[in-house]
Write a structure and sequence with these properties.
It is a single chain. Helix 4 links the parallel strand 9 and strand 10. The strands form five sheets. The protein has an eight-stranded parallel beta sheet with strand order 8-14-17-18-19-20-21-22. The N terminus is likely disordered. By secondary structure, it is an alpha/beta fold. It is built from 18 helices and 25 strands. The longest helix is centred in the middle third of the chain and has 17 residues.
Length: about 550
């Protein structure tokens, strides 16, 4: 199935399903007004410490009440959902992504994450166009790489202007790779961009690259000018619904680059003063389809870090409610650049202030040396603080493609953990640009969880990341991470139970156990069975019913 927005059948609550049945009137009159649901006749992988698999799970209110076999004490007031043998897993937790940025994309964002050919791309865009009024922009910005569109030995490429016109003659289209392009458009888009002085080739190609502004970022800037607040709220809702369709129930957002409000801004930039307003509006309206956790990203040049200081004085870590709360600082800590080449005074000063305030901190590592800068700096700061220093704050280093056993031991001694990902290397990794060393890290015993780092250079789709974890193969089918793969069970644990620790919510999230929030995903096929789901089919897995706090947020009985 092409990876378009899998149109949801969002139901108000699981209890609301009962109202559709003939017995609903009697139940409404005589049963307590509380969510009471039994999901039964399934293969429910609890991901508890003993990897228990059960047939049934009962939900009362927003939490799991019981697991096991049979009806688990269900009464006539219990709504019963027959899983028909489906595989169920805890709701997946994406412990590091940029879903807020995804929600702010201009146009009607259309994920191309699992498109495996130019034909897949065109089918996905055609399906999107069929549901939109003529003239509406269809966009796909980041989260894919043209490597995936043309199987070897063909040369990777975008679809051409003519190919886009063949499926979207009535909708302008803009497809952008990575942070700042390149990109491509169709005839309607070409006309729009050229009227604004942006160079578009005859085949629809628009130049891009890390040097900004460039034609792609200028094109993106023009599209952002068209956006209204309502567009951003709709886009944020679309992004959350898309996540729910994949079985994601909790997402840990890592912020965005401070926007300049000019054509230099790429896909990772947002207005730090207003970026969260659409998300907050949806929260007030009760429309969040997944739980959201927030880190606040800081990029400053002044060692006094005035913006970070203001945050630490005027907000509270782990403040919010079960659906939306802030957590800490990351994935940059008052650093003027995305890559740490040295422990600069501004980074050291800002990082120490986070430690003194008792906040969680997260830094990303992308190069063969930056993890050393981070962990040596953390070690120095920890030594300057009274016990326990940072050892109880669960500081995390993300991505870590090149981390070594020596530095794993250093981080473990600091009470820290690692946050690994697969989708980035799947899209564009090579035998030299591979990692992370999943097996080495897991065997070390360091706290470790998994994430996507979507949606600029990596897909949000967790099943793509798990494909890379299990096979070590990139989008071109090349084995690039041999010797560092994990089993399917080990990989899924990183997306569920293990991520509870990274969020400091292991008592509430990550497994299907009594007392924890009732978050789960009913899968389209049996992830654990390589006969039913060969490795290549992992990339097409999705959810047919996603439940958050006992409430169906995607799919429903009709999809089982």
């Amino acid at each position: 199935m092409p990876n378009s927005h899998r149109l949801t059948t969002t139901l108000a609550t699981l209890a609301g399903l009962a109202i559709l049945s003939s017995a609903a009137p009697a139940r409404a009159q005589s049963c307590p007004d509380v969510r009471d649901v039994l999901l039964t006749n399934g293969a429910i992988h609890t991901m508890d410490k003993t990897d228990t698999v059960v047939e049934s799970v009962r939900i009362i209110g927003q939490r799991f009440a019981a697991t096991g076999r049979g009806r688990l004490g269900a009464t006539r007031c219990t709504d019963v959902i027959d899983l028909k043998g489906r595989t169920v897993v805890p709701g997946l937790i994406d412990a590091h992504n940029h879903v807020v940025l995804l929600g702010l994309r201009p146009g009607h964002d259309t994920r191309l994450e699992t498109a495996a050919s130019i034909d897949d791309v065109l089918k996905t865009l055609a399906a999107r166009a069929a549901k939109l009024p003529a003239g509406e922009w269809i966009t796909s910005i980041g989260g894919f790489d043209i490597n995936q569109f043309v199987p070897p030995p063909g040369k990777p490429r975008f679809p051409t202007l003519a190919e886009l016109d063949s499926v979207t003659p009535n909708h302008p289209v803009f497809i952008q790779e990575s942070f700042a392009g390149p990109s491509v458009t169709n005839s309607l888009g070409k006309k729009f961009f050229e009227s604004r002085g942006i160079e578009v080739a005859a085949d629809g190609a628009i130049a891009g690259g890390f040097q900004t502004p460039n034609p792609t970022t200028r094109a993106l800037f023009e599209l952002r000018k068209l956006q209204t607040f309502e567009d951003k709220e709709r886009g944020t809702l679309d992004a959350l619904n898309y996540a729910a369709s994949l079985g994601l129930t909790t997402q840990f957002d890592e912020g965005g680059f401070p926007a300049t409000g000019t054509a230099a801004d790429g896909a990772a930039h947002f207005d730090i003063y207003h970026a969260y307003e659409p998300l907050l509006a949806l929260h007030r309206e009760g429309k969040l389809a997944t739980r959201i956790r927030l880190n606040f990203l800081y990029m400053e040049t002044d060692p006094a870090t005035p913006e970070l200081v203001a945050r630490l004085k005027n907000a509270f870590p782990y403040f919010g409610d079960p659906m939306l709360k802030d957590v800490g600082i990351g994935e940059f800590t008052a650093t003027p650049a995305a890559i740490l080449t040295e422990a600069s005074p501004v980074w050291l000063a800002g990082t120490k202030r986070v430690a003194e305030a008792g906040w969680r901190n997260e830094n990303h590592s992308l190069t063969p040396n930056d993890f050393k800068v981070i962990m040596d700096g953390w070690t120095k700061i920890n030594s300057e603080l009274p016990p326990p220093g940072i050892t109880k704050l669960r500081w995390v280093v993300a991505h870590v493609p090149f981390i070594t056993p020596e530095y794993v031991a250093k981080l473990k001694a600091l009470g820290g953990g690692v946050n690994v990902l697969g989708g980035w290397r799947y899209l564009s990794g090579t035998a030299k640009q591979n990692g992370p060393p999943f097996r080495m890290l897991l065997d070390s015993g360091i706290p470790m969880g998994m994430s996507s780092d979507g949606m600029q250079i990596s897909p949000m789709d967790p099943w793509i990341g798990l494909y890379y974890v299990v096979t070590g193969k990139n989008a071109r089918g090349e084995l690039i991470n041999a010797g560092q793969t994990l089993t399917r069970e080990e990989g899924l644990r990183l997306y569920t139970a293990s991520n509870g620790w990274l969020l400091h919510e292991e008592d509430s999230l990550g497994t299907i156990e009594p007392g924890k929030y009732a978050d789960l995903a009913v899968l389209s096929a049996n992830y654990f069975d390589p006969t039913a789901v060969p490795d290549e089919a992992l990339k097409k897995l999705h959810s047919v019913m996603t439940v958050v706090g006992g409430k169906i947020v995607f799919g429903g009985k009709g999809m089982l």
